[in-house]
Amino acid sequence: EPEVTQTPSHQVTQMGQEVILRCVPISNHLYFYWYRQILGQKVEFLVSFYNNEISEKSEIFDDQFSVERPDGSNFTLKIRSTKLEDSAMYFCASSLGQKHTFGSGTRLTVV
Amino acid sequence: DQQVKQNSPSLSVQEGRISILNCDYTNSMFDYFLWYKKYPAEGPTFLISISSIKDKNEDGRFTVFLNKSAKHLSLHIVPSQPGDSAVYFCAASEQNTGFQKLVFGTGTRLLVSP
Q: What residues of chain B lie within 8 A of the CB of A44, using their CB?
């Protein structure tokens, strides 16, 4: 069964540094998403991406965040200047419709 | 603003018995509902879904029931197996928006004991 692949699985970064989380969605999917889950909390929507542009973003997705699909296969989430509260699991997902297929996540730890 | 709520943080069931996980929602625009299972250090895995035009959907040991008037859905697992032990998330979306983000509940941790 096709998978969504995320790298790295764990990233530790210093506060104020930039991080890029990478994802390879399922190749024939049209919609791409980033979600995050702070420890012990629910999975929260960050941003959706369709037709090479952001289609919707949440309040969490402020100017420190950006997404890109640079080469037709990769889908990246950049956090420009990380804060302690950005520490979370970040999940990439892709879909053709409502059913999302999620990657296994990147655990981001900001110290 | 909790649009999707799972009021039971945990549930313990014996192997072979039925597990019933509940979910309530407040947004009447939601018209598609999904259940995901999540193991530690893994991403959510799709289990089963239901459209608002139905009140039941079944897939093997998993059945989802939807009560639109009560804005309530439930996932039944029968018979429960130890491998079903995981966190279960209810999620909802609006089909007609075109961009189908999912709104998740807080999850219910299911423990199935042998």
A: 104
Mean pLDDT of A23-49: 94
Residue B40's pLDDT band, with cuts at 50, 70 and 90, is confident
The nearest CA of chain A is from the CA of B54 a distance in Å of 16
Q: What is the pLDDT of residues A69-100, one digit of tens each?
A: 988 789 999 999 999 999 999 999 999 888 89
| A100, closest residue in chain B (CA to CA) | B46
Query: Pick from A35, A42, A105: which is nearest to B105 by CB?
Result: A42
Q: What is the DSSP string of chain B?
A: --SEE---SEEEEETTS-EEEEEEE--TT--EEEEEEE-TTS--EEEEEEETT-SEEEETTEEEEEETTTTEEEEEESS--GGG-EEEEEEEE-GGGSS---EE---EEEEEE-
How many angstroms separate the CA atoms of B96 and B55, rounded? 19
Q: Which CATH number fits domain A5-96: 3.10.450.50, 2.60.40.10, 3.40.50.300, 3.30.2280.10?
A: 2.60.40.10
Say what the pLDDT of residue B98 is.
61
Tell me if chain B has a CB within 8 Å of the CB of A28. no
* Whether B102 and A98 lie within 8 Å, measured CB to CB: yes
